[in-house]
Structure formats: C-alpha cells, structure tokens
Amino acid sequence: MVKSLRKLIEQVAKEKGIPEWLVEKALKNSIALATKKDRKIKDRVEVELTDDEVKVYILRKGEKFPLDIVPEELDRIAAYAAKEEFLRELEKADEERRYLEFIELEGEIVLGIVRKVAENEDLIVDLGKVMAVLPKREQIPKEVYKVGDRLKALLLRVVRKRGGYEIILSRTHPNFLRKLLEAEVPEIKEGEVEILNIAREPGERAKVLVRSKDTRMDPVAVVVGLRGSNIAPISKELSGERIDVIKDTDNIEELVRRSLAPAPVTDVRVDPKLKRVEVAVPKDKLSLAIGKRGINVKLANKITGWYIDILSEEDFKKISQLK
Q1: Which of 34-38, 51-55, 243-247 shows the lowest per-residue confidence on average (mean pLDDT)?
Q2: Quick check: 134 pLDDT over 80?
Q3: pLDDT of 110-131, one tens digit each?
Q4: Distances (CA, A) of 268 to 115, 232, 260, 309
Q5: Rounded (to 5) percent helix, strand, coil in the chain
Q6: Does residue 106 sit within a domain?
Q7: What CATH number has the domain bearing residue 35?
Q8: pLDDT at 33 over 90
Q9: Beta-sheet pairing, 276-281 with 307-312
Q10: Which residues span the domain enclosing 32?
Q11: Are residues 298 and 282 part of one domain?
Q12: Count of CB atoms situated within 10 Å of the CB of 141
C-alpha cells in the first residue's frame, strides 16, 4: 500500500504543481481524519509514512500511542481518505503553496487591487494568486481607498495563522521608501550609492541618509535626479510626502546641520556623553527648524541617532554663559 500511496503523491504533485511534501502532508492529514471518523476517536491522530509501512498514532498528553490497525482496515481507511478527505486537504495544500510562494517576496514591493474595505478600514488586497491585508496602521493617513483601486505596497511579512496564512502589507514602513528609491535610482540598485538610514512621517516628510562609494560622486544629486526627476514620482506615490536626501558625514555637527535643512543653523554644541546636540537658529526660523507638529526635528533625531535641542540664537548664548 505504501508504494501505491507514494505513486499517488508523485502523480498528484506533478498534476497540481504542488511540492510532494505538501501533497504527502495533505494525504497524511486525510488518513488521520478518516481514521478518527472510522474509530470515533476524539484525540489527535498522527500518521507516518515510512518506506515500507503506514503507522498511525494517537496523541494524548504529549505522548504517542501506536494504533493497532490491521492492513485490511488500513487499506479501507486509506481508500476512503483518498476519495473524501484527501480532496479537501489537497485544496488546503494548494492554498498553502500559493502563500508560501509569497514568503520569498517579503521585503519587496507588490501590486494589488483593493477588493474590500473592512469596517475597521483594513483593506483586503488581491495580489493575483492570494489575498493580502493592508491594515489601517500601515496605510498613509491622508490616503482614502475604495474597492477597485490599484496600489503598491511593501510585502511586510507572511504570518502563519490558525487554519492558514495571512499576508501583511505596508505603505508606511521605511523599507517601502527604500524599495521605491531602488527602483527609481539605478545607482542605488547597483550599489554605487548606499542608503544608510531612513526616517519617515508617512505622507508628510521623510529623511534619507546616503553616501557614495566613489568620493567624486554626489550621492544627493544622484538620488534626487535632474530637477528632482527621481524624487518627484516617489513623492507622488507617497501622497506628496516631502523627501529630504542627506549626504552622510562623520562630523556630527555638519550632519546635524544637514539634517535640519532648509533651516539655517548658526551654532552647534555637542555633548558626546549624553549624545545630545544643541543648535542655534535665527528666531524667525525656529518654526522651520522644528517643523509642523515637530516633524522636522523628530526626523532629524531619528536620522542622526542624536537628540537635537533647537534653540533661538539668544537662548543658545544665554545657556552658553551659564555653563
């Protein structure tokens, strides 16, 4: 019987385009279910296919107990399972295969069509072979979606859930912006320009820290493109998110200055022990440096890894005198 089951596994795998291990898993599950029905067993049942026999076990309190089944009875159960339960288990295996294919796409951009907007505003997105979820928390706040809309998103992760899998998408993750930049700027894809860090306030503003392997190359100009030709379509894709591209430097004072642009920084004081930086800006430029709802300085903190305290020039001098 084992040989005939092996042939069945090979045949179905070939016909359905499903890996043999998934077909075998489906067949073992179907035999287990058929055995439980035939013997009226309430405990879990596990089936093993060895090279020369089929073994059936009852799982109880963490232990395996072999089930005494004569060959004729096992033949009957297996034949029943192959006709009834196996078809249902095979459908599950086929679905599992389709989801497993997407595990290899984790961290990549995928295209989909919105099929449903749930009550909690999560989106059900059709990726062609499978459905995915774009949770409300992973959506750019200012965007509104409706059924039939096409969208790009980062395939964040494939999650194993009871009874199947769930694909989680994101449009807010920093790596979504990273992948959009890779697709738009060949020098990033080819490794000539490296993205060191990304900080985002989705839909509002982002800062991207870059450097080039060739010191003669200006990585900011390369990434931004001629008159913003590279950044413009990405900003549009992200609902107008403004993208600041910053050239990396080992000089923390200069890095902080660059990270707060376009606000002019007139003085800087660095405290390496606290990893804190105090900066002075003209009084009339305070709001520009801090940004709307504090977004500019918040992103500057994230992109540099330092806490940045923005002061007016007058307050900066007063504090200097007290020290």
Answers
A1: 51-55
A2: yes
A3: 999 999 999 999 999 999 988 9
A4: 52, 32, 12, 10
A5: 45, 30, 30
A6: no
A7: 3.30.1480.10
A8: no
A9: parallel
A10: 2-101
A11: yes
A12: 12
